[in-house]
Fold these 2 entries.
Entry 1:
Amino acid sequence: MNLPKLLLLLIPIFFLSSCLNDYDKRARLDLKVGILENEWSSWQVVAGLAQIKEDSDKNTITLWAQAPAFEIELKTGSIQTAPTPLQLICHNCLATSQLKFISTSDSTPLIDQIPRTAPTEKQWNITNLQPDSQYVLQIGETQTGSELAYKVAFFSDIQKEGMQNVEDIFENINNYGDIKFVISAGDITHRGTSEEIEVFKEKLKTLEVPFYTTSGNHDVGWGEELAWQKYFGRNSFNFIYRNTAFSFVDSADATVAPKVYSWLDKWLEQSLDRVHIFIAHISPLDPVSSRQGSFSSRLEAHKLIGKLERAKVDLALFGHIHSYYSYSLGTIPAYISGGGGGNEEKLDGISRHYLVLNINSQQVKGIELVRIP
């Protein structure tokens, strides 16, 4: 078969594979995260800030948190009663997290905390859930102190090469001290398979603080379209911690879905008076433009930068490029930290690393580059 005919046969296959998990579809799937219905109840995590599932024993509800604090709306049915006790397990939680009922249509259920088995896991037994009732549960720190300074670690691009020894980075973060949680711009895996994500989650048990991340181009679009949402939750999400807004935006396809732009507009508007940190995998503009490690449309890139500037975003963080860069997007300080262990840029002398952000209620006070020996 000659080359032109072979190309004609391959083109439909290429486009079919590239559409298996496109950015618009990922945005639609994000809206399904945090919703569970079973025989006796319906659950909805507000803003989809945790993935939720019912275990096979029907007595356990398990959450994977994507934020330090979130609320859950629970409605019980009128026919079948709730398990007694009902076990609620939250993975990827702050060690200081507590569960409480902040609203009930009946008597307040009883909560019994169970000793945790991992640093970022919390477990509770719940009893006295009444039929045909509505509740709002909250998981998070009981006292946050919005004026208090704190530290957050940031890195991305672990991929296949970095997965083998990512525990080294986790150990370094554990030993650094006083880091509240880790944020990431994605490319956790090589091809976004369930098997890869399960391996990463097993390794994540050695990290003593939560790990919140958006997806990268290696995490999505390779065939398992539901894997990311199943194991982590949303690709795009926003939370507020101690008066700082963190907005994670899916740019894995070198663009942002229109639906996600509408969410971002709301996030920007509601945090005009807060410190605001923007996180995405691919930067709108590449600090070394000859690589084309940026949005596919420069028009869209400048449109996004304009949005962030007008909202006075304090900091923008990205991955995708396996190195470290400090630059600016208009008036916004920007950093690339692709030091998770994926094939590194040659001769740049950076290698594996992460950043430590020192934050208070007024500003990002400083950013430190930490190298992994």
Entry 2:
Amino acid sequence: LWAFVEQFELYRRLVALREDLAVLRQVAEDDRRHGREYEEAERDPARASTVFEPARLAYERSLRSLAGMARAHGVRAAFCTYTTLLCLNMTEEQKRKSVQVLRLVPGYTLRGVLAGIDAFNETMREQARAQDVLLVDAAKDFPKDLEHFVEHVHHTDKGAALLASRVARVLLEAGWLDARGPVRSH
């Protein structure tokens, strides 16, 4: 009997993994398609203003998929918004350390990249609400200075500590952590 139960459990897990793999294949295909769209935008600057929307929609689908997979496997999920050094009033040093980001999104100005980041963060906030997923809104009021960032996205030790403290605070407030560590879900 135990052998049958173990085989059934293994079968159930394999079916769940196959479904997860199908979702991940779709995400990979979306990424390839959007890579082609970015290349087209580089050749046609007039098209560049529409590139983020398909990527944002794919990102929305990915967030829904992640939340759904977590629920299906009994795992609690939390989303964390994207923090960046980028802002409109950067110092010359901040610009020097962030210039490579504009090469990653050809055809965009700094204002366009910021609009894209804002759109992705807002999508994450919306999906956290819609999917009932815990949200760490790290982007809200995160300092945009070289004390907290090495360059446009990577944090210094001080920035990483601030981000970690924000995540920990949200997890504590949600009851996912206590002074001893993680709290098991019921």
